[in-house]
Amino acid sequence: MDTIFSQIVRGEVPVDVVYQDELVTAFRDIQPQAPTHIVIVPNKPIPTVADVTEADEPALGRLIRVAARLAEEDGIDKAGYRLILNCRAHGGQEVYHLHVHLLGGRPLGRMLADPE
Ligand code: 5GP
Fold first, then answer.
1. What is the DSSP string of the chain?
2. Residue ID of nearest Cα to ligand 1 atom 15
3. 5 lines ligand 1 (CB under 6 A)
4. Which of 37, 90, 97, 99 does the annotation list as catalytic?
5. d(CA 100, CA 38)
6. Is the Cβ–Cβ distance between 35 and 106 less than 8 Å?
7. Mean pLDDT throughout 67-85?
8. What is the CB neighbour count within 10 angstroms for residue 72?
9. Which is more confidently placed, 29 or 1?
10. In this structure, what are the phi and psi dihedrals at residue 68, rounded to the nearest 5 degrees?
């Protein structure tokens, strides 16, 4: 399924791309939840974590290494940061193209919000 993230990977949507290679693309979130809020996606449109196959392991490994490098570039690596990967409805996933959120630049508080 073609999502907004596939369009971003192909350069069809104007976003602030901070990194791109043959496996992954990283861009700043349109609604940042912290001073640093970067979304990192595999270029291949994997819908959710549940759809990952062995063939995707190189892209997902790259995704983590790129997150660490971008944290360093944004100067948030020493203080620390959080990587979030939401899966399906209860996980709060809105875009069904697997992605990792890199968040930091302030204390991020408890890992989970209180249930509404
Ligand atoms: P999810 O809730 O699926 O884990 O996260 C989706 C994220 O994508 C949200 O934080 C949302 O703000 C971001 N997002 C959705 N559409 C766009 C867009 O067109 N541009 C950018 N830069 N971010 C987007």
1. ---HHHHHHTT-S---EEEE-SSEEEEE-SS-SSSEEEEEEESS---SGGG--GGGHHHHHHHHHHHHHHHHHTT-TTT-EEEE---HHHHT--SSS--EEEEESS----SSPPP-
2. 30
3. no
4. 99
5. 8
6. yes
7. 98
8. 11
9. 29
10. -65, -40
- The answer for residues whose C-beta is within 8 angstroms of residue 56's C-beta and 6 or more apart is 42, 44, 46
Query: Which amino acid is located at 29 in the chain?
Result: D
Q: Which two tokens stand for residue 13?
A: 């949507």
Distances (CA, A) of 10 to 5, 16, 44, 70, 88: 9, 13, 11, 21, 24
For 92, the token pair is 């709060």
pLDDT reported for residue 113: 79
